[in-house]
Amino acid sequence: MSLKRKLAAVLAGVGIAPFIVVVSAGTASAHGYISSPPSRQAMCAQGRVSNCGPIIYEPQSVEGPKGQRNCHAGLGQFAQLNDDSRAWPTTSVGNNVAFNWTLTARHATSTWEYYVGGTRIAEFNDGGRQPGATVTHNVGLDGRTGRIKLLAIWNIADTPMAFYSCVDLQVGPGGGGPTTTTAPPTTTTRPTTTTTAPPVGGTWAPNTAYSVGSQVTYGGVGYRCIQAHTSLVGWEPPNTAALWQKL
Ligand SMILES: [Cu+2]
After folding, report:
1. I want to staple 108 with a disulfide (CB 3.0 to 4.6 A). Which of 32, 77, 157, 179 is the partner?
2. pTM of the model
């Protein structure tokens, strides 16, 4: 191949790759939510709560104007998330909790806020920086015990919008230790409040590197990978046409 043609081929490749990324970010991968301890939308997406509505397909999309104090960003299609009369499972924690966000679009961030009741118990100021694909905050619960509903808010720096996640917690007495995910090697029975991947049915899994041509199943349907990537919760094949092609 002549140098000119080589160069043209390289440029064509470079031109296509960013285009694909833009398409996938614009369609299905927007935004973020608290994945552990599982937020209400995570519980729904993992199938641990039924009759959740369309949130099961896009737990990362609870986006609404800033300044709200609810679990559903004021969105009618996600109203179930704000229904406290539902039997939301809790996660058992101590008095300090590590909240992990899964961000499928890394928006420049002003602040992260954490509320219990009407009280803001923590705030993290990112000053407009772009976060990584995952973000962890350690939050103290100030001696609260028993069942609590925590509301976390991700405030975007360059839009009027924010993302809302409610997490139902059972706060143990005498806490102080961070929430851990270490599995006891002993015979101790452990409550099934884990942060493992959702049992969605199929061979697709989050946090997995897929190369072009890899084949998976999801929801009873086969898919072939058309762009190499590392999967994330929220990037399930039905949500990411730029990454997966139906077989
Ligand atoms: Cu977004």
Report:
1. 157
2. 0.61
